[in-house]
Amino acid sequence: MFTTAVGMPGPFELIIVLAIVMILFGAGKLPKVLGQMGKGVKAFKEGLTGKEGEEPFDVTPDDDESEPPKAIDEGLGDEAVAAEEAVEEAEDAEEVVSQDESA
Is residue 36 part of a domain? Predict the structure, then answer.
């Protein structure tokens, strides 16, 4: 008796699949269809490995043409200064409140 793993098609299922394939494609076209499928699998494997005609190229930026990185705060002007002052005032106010609570 045949024993197979769970989920694997048995011999009867394989015969049914083969019969459906023969009905759909016919005996004459079956070698062509299987040949095209084999070429597709081969092309897919070559695409995964990247062997065919692909030369690695350098993607690092050129140092001569690029500008140095700018600071985040640069260009914000008065808005950045006002925001920093507001943060400092809020921190000072928190210190005063904590001193009053401890006294």
Answer: yes
In a domain, 43, yes or no: yes
Q: What is the pLDDT of residues 40-81, one digit of tens each?
A: 999 888 888 766 556 666 777 666 655 666 666 555 566 667
> Cα 78 from chain centroid?
41
Contact 32, 24 (CB under 8 A): no
Cβ neighbors of 10 (< 8 A, separation 6 or more) are: 2, 4
Q: How many domains does the chain have?
A: 1
| Domain encompassing residue 33 | 10-52
